[in-house]
Amino acid sequence: RPPSRIRVLLKAPTLAEMEEMNIFEDEDSP
Amino acid sequence: HPVNIPRREKDFQGMLEYKKEDELKLVKNLILELKPRGVAVNLIPGLPAYILFMCLRHADYINDDQKVRSLLTSAINSIKKILKKRGDDFETVSFWLSNTCRFLHCLKQYSGDEQFMKHNTPKQNDHCLSNFDLAEYRQVLSDLAIQIYQQLIKCMENILQPMIVSGMLEHETIQGVSGVKPTGLRKRTSSIADEGTYTLDSIIRQLNSFHSIMCQHGTDPELIKQVVKQQFYVIGAVTLNNLLLRKDMCSWSKGMQIRYSVTLETRADLRITARVCGALKPVLWPPELIVAGLVFIPAEVIIAKNHFFFSVQIVKVLNLYTPVNAFEERVSVLFIRTIQTRLRDRKESPQLLMDTKLIYPVTFPFNPSSLALETIQIPGSLNVGFLTRV
Lengths: 30, 390
What we know:
The complex is a heterodimer of chains A (about 30) and B (about 400). In chain A, about 35% of the residues lie in helices and about 5% in strands. Chain A is built from two helices and one strand. The longest helix of chain A has 6 residues, at about 15-20. The N and C termini of chain A lie far apart (about 60 Å). By secondary structure, chain B is mainly α. Helix content of chain B is about 55%, strand content about 0%. Chain B is built from 14 helices and three strands. A two-stranded antiparallel sheet of chain B has the order 1-3. The interface of A and B includes residues 7, 8, 14, 23 and 24 of A. β1 (about 10) of chain A pairs parallel with β2 (about 130-135) of chain B, so a sheet runs across the interface.
């Protein structure tokens, strides 16, 4: 069996932190 | 004449490529503006999830961690946004619950982690992510799925709430429980209720509608079971809270009757008994407690065994209990006092006997799909023609 590939762990923000990276800023601002 | 030989299309590897500047267009067309009823999405349950995953696979394939992060963040934020906007629509919530779960299952199934690859075909194993470990993002998606599940339950409750008392107790066809109507009138209840009233039939129709919507969206069977258990709890809790606080119900013989009827119902189908009994337990205790109180089982014993299931409002029912004939005992004052004392330090709940707002913890058992990514056809009506098949 071939050795399993080493994958780089991608650090993830929490759900709340993600929300702060709002991709819809233009639409949401009044 | 030149002969037109069709060129053999290069093998599709089940990946989808897009330009970075098209990411917003992707989530807009695939998530924000997608109609859960559209024909396109119903061809393959979980189609938006598969498409997102195929895009993710390509970003992983070209080893672009920024693209992977950005796509996941945009997708998750878009799902949250659509749920904020249309969170009271059962169909929308159910649709995104099943798609979020499918996306989560894909991230596991193609993670390259052996524990999730047991059911994969060799080709599916070839399609595993090659550069990134997204375990942390799986956790975030799982948190999102829990939020969506809770929203689904609330949405369902809002629809069921006004139907329960009317359908279960006032226009019901189960004899001898509610005591609302004189016996002669009972059988006259038709399945077509007056305006603003509901029957048992209308509740069942509503439950059927929830079920078929979830099936249509390809919701995991294990998840559907959990939703059904929760529905059963809510209907039982609201009914019981209403029923047991009716003056005519607060008697020993009625309490026994309920206990007996419930026992018969669960015995009727032994296959479901084991599963259902867990959910039924809270429904069974109040009458049992009342009965126990009347036959002088020490209050401490009852409380110690079952304190989790009832709130301080049980005292109200015990106080309402009135003997209907000479053979019935009154609940002893000592018994009521003991229960009152033992429950005094408990956080006061605004609920009556049972907490109708209780939501059972949810789990999302891994459910890999046998669908081969390279066979997925994307309907034109999804407006994602800017994606390139790789």
